[in-house]
Design brief:
Blueprint: H1 2-29, E1 34-44, E2 47-51, H2 58-66, E3 71-80, E4 86-95, E5 99-101, E6 114-116, E7 121-127, H3 128-144, H4 151-159, E8 165-170, E9 175-177
Antiparallel strand pairs: 1-2, 1-3, 3-7, 4-5, 4-6, 4-8, 8-9
């Protein structure tokens, strides 16, 4: 008789844990979720060509210029992958040591704030010059920091520049950092 009670109690505990896990997963997956990507490229006339930040080099930009894409740009692509709409308030580029660069004028893309419906994506872009300047300033700050003689500090110092990532601020107060780093 006691064995049957133990089996029923264990089954109840397993079902309760499964229910709790399902509720937690449902809560996390419900609502607005965004994916953010950092892109670099160039624009010319009526089109914009972008790629991953690891494609960034002067030769690539020269090739794009020869094809008519003469204005180098840095872009942020935001995709709503959640189950509710989200509103993008601001977008920009962040260097951990130098801060965050938010464009205030002269950018390509929809005016902000912009509501992204479920499944939609949007790309915003700006001139690459200020982003490269942010990278240079951030790298100078990192290079001038005194190096502490801890194992962690040595690992960070040997890794070099942390680089720049794309960042998006949503209307609900969340900030989302993107994939891709410009170093």
């Amino acid at each position: 008789m006691q064995y049957a009670s133990l089996v029923v109690a264990i089954c109840g505990l397993v079902l309760a844990c499964l229910s709790l896990g399902w509720q937690a997963a449902n809560f996390v997956l419900t609502g607005g979720r965004v994916k953010v990507e950092f892109r670099v490229g160039a624009t010319g006339g009526r089109a914009m060509l972008t790629a991953e930040p690891n494609s960034f080099n002067p030769d690539w930009l020269t090739e794009l210029a020869q094809q008519g894409y003469r204005q180098p740009i840095a872009a942020v692509r935001v995709a709503n992958v959640g189950r509710q709409p989200v509103t993008v308030e601001r977008w920009g580029f962040q260097h951990p040591a130098a801060g965050t660069l938010f464009p205030v004028a002269d950018f390509i893309g929809k005016p902000l704030p912009h509501r992204l419906e479920v499944g939609q994506s949007e790309t915003w872009a700006m001139d690459l010059g200020p982003v490269v300047d942010l990278l240079k300033v951030g790298n100078e700050i990192v290079a001038k920091r005194p190096v502490r003689r801890t194992l962690f500090a040595q690992a960070v110092a040997s890794a070099g520049s942390p680089g720049i990532v794309a960042v998006v601020e949503l209307a609900d107060g969340r900030a989302k950092r993107g994939r891709g780093t410009l170093r």
